[in-house]
Write a structure and sequence with these properties.
Number of strands: 2
Shape: globular
Order of helices and strands: EEHHHHHH
Helix content: 40-55%
Length: 145
């Protein structure tokens, strides 16, 4: 979807209007990675295992549990190898890290859906190249390691 966030600028800074459709993100995102839902799932499962092995009487927070449930429901990739393969495939193209995460997480069914979900792709990729990219994602999903 369309995400527009206005940031309050300090008086001496130029105000930047963030707009994901044009790949404009705030400074706080410059050094941040966009994670796949499957990567978040693995991180949370690892944290949960650590928590359980420590005989901690304190329960994991409701937010943690709900986030883990969400990730388990919507995770597309079963292994680190598949995630690496999907990322590697997408990184061969001139995609922004936000676009890589969106394409890998949303797995659009065709080029029209991809361009509808990610307007930043329009005009940068022809349908043939975009379709090849989507086919590569589907191949990795269908033949997971």
């Amino acid at each position: 979807g369309l995400v527009i966030v206005k940031m309050a600028a300090k008086p001496d800074e130029e105000q930047v209007e963030e707009d994901a459709t044009e790949l404009r993100f705030g400074k706080e995102f410059d050094n941040a990675d966009a994670l796949l839902v499957s990567e978040v799932k693995m991180l949370l499962e690892h944290r949960k295992a650590q928590h359980e092995s420590q005989d901690d009487d304190q329960d994991l927070s409701e937010v943690f549990t709900k986030t883990l449930d969400y990730c388990q429901t919507f995770s597309k990739y079963n292994s680190r190898e598949t995630i690496s393969a999907v990322r590697g495939t997408l990184q061969k193209h001139k995609l922004h890290k936000f676009e890589i995460a969106c394409l890998a997480n949303l797995t659009p069914g065709d080029t029209d859906e991809a361009k509808s979900l990610l307007p930043s792709l329009q005009g940068r990729f022809d349908d043939l190249e975009l379709n090849e990219l989507l086919d590569d994602i589907r191949t990795h999903m269908n033949y997971q390691y």
